[in-house]
Amino acid sequence: MTIKDKKKFRRNRIKMRIRKRIIGSSTKPRMTVFRSNKEIYIQLIDDLNQKTLVSASSLGKDFEKEKMTKMEQAKRVGALIAQKAADVGIETVVFDRNGYLYHGRVKTLADAAREAGLKF
Domain segments of the chain: what residues? Predict the structure, then answer.
């Protein structure tokens, strides 16, 4: 088993430990984060009906290949998801960090979503 596989296995174990306690509904969806090396993605998921209600990412039309740091990307995606959620009528969510540590880009995204009016 390579080091890369060990890291994936560890993150997946943490992810499953979190997911067994967190369930999203249509009124209070699960806000899940995926972060790659270059981009960051976020979805609001209704687990009961197995549907994605709203999603946003740093690859969207709102990001027109401007030069910005990954932290700035995370901040803008957090504000964008809060705005899209408000348009749909979602005020509260359950935050799912998806096995990532709660610092850096994940924390910045969550703080920006809170500042934009999303409650969790």
Answer: 3-115
pLDDT in tens, 62-102: 777 778 899 999 999 999 999 999 999 999 999 999 999 99
Q: What is the dihedral of CA 40, 68, 81, 117, to 10 degrees?
A: 130
Residues 29 and 93: beta-carbon distance below 8 Å: yes
Query: Cβ-count burial of 110 within 10 angstroms (0-12 exposed, 13-18 middle, 19+ buried)?
Result: buried
- How far is the C-alpha of 20 from the C-alpha of 22, rounded, in Å? 6
Mind giving me the DSSP string for 39-104?
Answer: -EEEEEEETTTTEEEEEEETTSTT--S----HHHHHHHHHHHHHHHHHHHT--B-EEE-TTS-SST
| CATH match for 3-115 among 3.20.20.70, 3.40.190.10, 3.30.420.100, 3.40.50.1700 | 3.30.420.100
- Residue whose structure tokens are 């998806």: 98
20-43 pLDDT, tens digit each: 999 999 899 999 999 999 999 999
